[in-house]
Amino acid sequence: MAVTKMFGASVKRREDPRLLTGRGNFTDHIRLPGTLVMAIKRSPHAHARIVRIDTSKARAIPGVVAVYTGQDLVDKLAPVPCAWLIPDSDLKVPTYRAVTVDKVRYVGDAVAVVVAENRYAAQDAVEAIDVEYEPLPAVVDQEKALEAGAPQLYDEVPNNLAFHWKLHAGDFDAAWDAAEVRLSRRLVNHRLIPTAMEPRGALAAYNPGTGELTIWCTSQNPHVHRLLLSAVTGLPETRIRVIATDVGGGFGSKIPMYAGEMIAAAISKDLGRPIKWIETRQENYVATIHGRDHIQYVDIAAKRDGTITGVRVRAYANLGAYLSTAAPGVPTWLFGLMLQGPYAIPVVHCDVYGVLTNTTPTDAYRGAGRPEATYLLERMIDLLARELGMDPAEIRRKNFIPKDKFPYTTPTGLQYDSGDYEATLDRALELVDYRNLRQQQAELRQQGRYIGIGFSTYVEVCGLAPSQAAGAMGFQGGLWESATVRVHPTGKVTVFTGSNPHGQGEETTFAQLVADELGVPFEDVEIVHGDTEMVPFGMGTYGSRSTAVGGAALVHACRKVKEKAQRIAAHLLEVSPEDIVFENGRFFVKGAPDRAMTFQEVALQAYLAWKLPRDIEPGLEATHFFDPVNNTFPFGCHICVVEVDPETGKVNFLKYVAVDDVGNVINPMIVDGQVHGGIAQGLAQAVYEYAAYDETGQLLTASLMDYALPKASMLPSFTVDRTVTPTPVNPMGVKGAGETGTIASTPAVANAVIDALAPFGIDHIDMPLTPERIWRAIREHAR
Amino acid sequence: MYPSTFSYYRAGSVQEALKLLVENPDAKLLAGGHSLIPAMKLRLAAPSALIDISRIAELAGIRDAGDRIVIGAMTRYDDIQRSDLIRQVLPILPEAIDVIGDLQVRNMGTIGGSLAHADPAADLPAVVLALGAEIKAVGPNGERTIPVDQFFVDLFTTALQPNEILTEVAIPKPPARTGMSYQKFANPASGYAVVGVAAVVTLADNGTVSAVRVGVTGAGPYAVRRQNVEQALVGKEPTAEAIEAASQLASEGMTFNSDIFASEEYRAHLTRVFVKRALTQAVQRARG
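Predict the joint structure of the above. Result:
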């Protein structure tokens, strides 16, 4: 496409004035008369049988309208659905009741629900519900959960094993036997808590007069939630409207169908009154999904020159107490497919064991599977470099898929459409001034200062598609996206997108796309999303797919509109459509630029329809459902420089360079913002954030006083640059940019810390690299 | 985030507050509220009543009382931080306040509230210990002065009686050639001190240490002075070696907290490291 003025411009986000001045329209902002407040009584035990629930005291509290136990809701709600049924893995999906009936399986499991006239009465009532438990032994570690004699969560899931998924590409045993160098490690990719700024919530309003349910909720994918709500409540989709216009971040945690929203819908239907439920932060920490939590056993086969000839992984994924909506797909497809990374590794063997434990369910968290694969590869390639005495930059260069090999089919079956990995490495080395940096590092080591330089070269799969692949992977949905472009008689444009941006800025970037495509002012374009009554069925925003898939749908819809406008202009200007040129918002006759109509004039004529030929319908709008032929594969190189205080083990950040290739860039400022936020989250996994359970299943990091989200003062300044390798899979040549930072940064930081500690003989410490862990490692190696 | 029902009283004077305390024995005094209110919202605390003393005029303000500086209990962190007198005479106070919480906390929090609450990881307890402050309290039987060394007695527990109100903190003006430093290892999640060390060092004309006080917070159940460290330095030339040797004593005889972020052993180590760092900087500053 012709890159005109809006494409590539750092237009300020049009979302920001309303968000920054408190005029957003978040779920908790919606007020309906007669609303009752809902609160959930949650289990304090990780594993226990429910002996008896006494709600009499709670019911007696003034302002309390109703109390429901799990048994009360069994007939009103089907179980929480799981929607990624991975094939050939002996997958077992245990029953997941929104409010549990017989047993609690994690701290935070819902045991009863209160509705009251106000939140205070509701909370008092929650405390007044008396539940008698018979505590059972709990298991929180996925390896221990598989051991003989481990506590069993479900009768129908022997040994707590939900699935065993395999992806075996090539003959690993042969590669291992032939290897000149063999490396084996156990790596832990620990559990994280997504922590969206807005916790989850819902306002469910069932109208008994019409039989319609309107639900405002914190959703990344409102249509998917409508479909699932229909399935669990029994209401037809035509009677359910899901609205999620402003959503305060998700990072994947607002994809699943959760108990809270389902219960609010069922109770609103039961009582015929609006029900509002908003999580507290503590509730958010136990009842919204967690991410990652892998234990990986990795074998790498290589030659002495550094060429990797095979990788074998046996991973144990902690799925938590129930299977969340997309949980089975994250540690399998989204992980296993990426195990060759940007390297020409010919053999990949992957076995993943999905294990149920007495912990909060896990599901997709920014990066979802790809960070786990990237960390594994990047840590192992550093270990290999150390083993062979090679420079970490050069061993990566040696293994890169060369740029003349694209499109490249990976052993795992993906087709990398395009790439130039070396270019990002070279640019990053230049930006960080690598040669001098290594020299400085050596000098400072002489003075007892420990500087470390860490690399991460990555490729990731995003812009998740196509639908055919989704089906083959057992994903219970398509991976296309929709857009409707409606031109009004004045030439102003409303776009209805099936994407549901919740922080990614597509209200701005999509308007930029439309302004260019239709030659209309940016201000004349309105983007509507997040309301199932207004927009055509859409798949939503996740997997860095909104711009690559939703944006492409939008461009295709614009082109349909343009084509019709061109036919109308041709008719009115009395030439054939082929003789019409469209430029800068004007249709004119080839060779006679004065014989012209503006886009707005054509729009008006389309609606007046006074002079339209019989074969052109009045009106000017088009809908397009775009199902791309492939995913997109952004890639890049991140380099982190740290200094470790050997006395305390504290990591201080000196430099951070990120060179990413996300293809063409519509709004550089927004992409920079996505990269910055992503780096912050990934860096935090390496050194700050971790969800910790004690052996009895209590979450020890259940508040922001204990869970270390990074503050600005805890982060370095980021140097961000890009190379541009457009993808052929969509008309704009754009790739996903939402997850690259998170995927790339964790290993870059971890590798930097380990590099800093090299003089102590340390070659690995499992994350999180907290000061005490580093201090202990130094002390142990000093002995 | 939704506290239990409670009554709220706003006291206009210390006498009125004392009277309300007698009438409501289960009440809590409300100062800046940045510790108490979150605890109530989480239902970790459920007092039947709050007596708001934060607006009592006689409890706020900073004055020069000759050989001492007197800070009213309800003086906000931000006011202490901005006081020219404090910045000149007791620069360790703004240095420590600078690493307390965030702007909102510093705008609301008070010195008296922090000391009376005695959070084991709060910053100011270490500072007032190092400064040798005196704590004044008033109760139904009148006023009394508590030396700071006797003030912190256990986890969230001070020498104050339940019916007493902390009214002011009196801090002796330090002699010439005094240097002070607060060094903190903050928990990355909460910002509270994993270990915080305040050191105040006075040098004699010959460069030896004539007086030194060291206060440690965060490490144990309550803030403590480290007399053993102090004694090892008094009369000595504060060389790096002397400081290092004295700091090694810092963890002796102490009880240490343990949590997921820092074990007892690590806290003991950090205590030695941060005592060393605080002493080193205080000595440097004393030398001018």
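The two ends of chain B are 49 Å apart (CA to CA).
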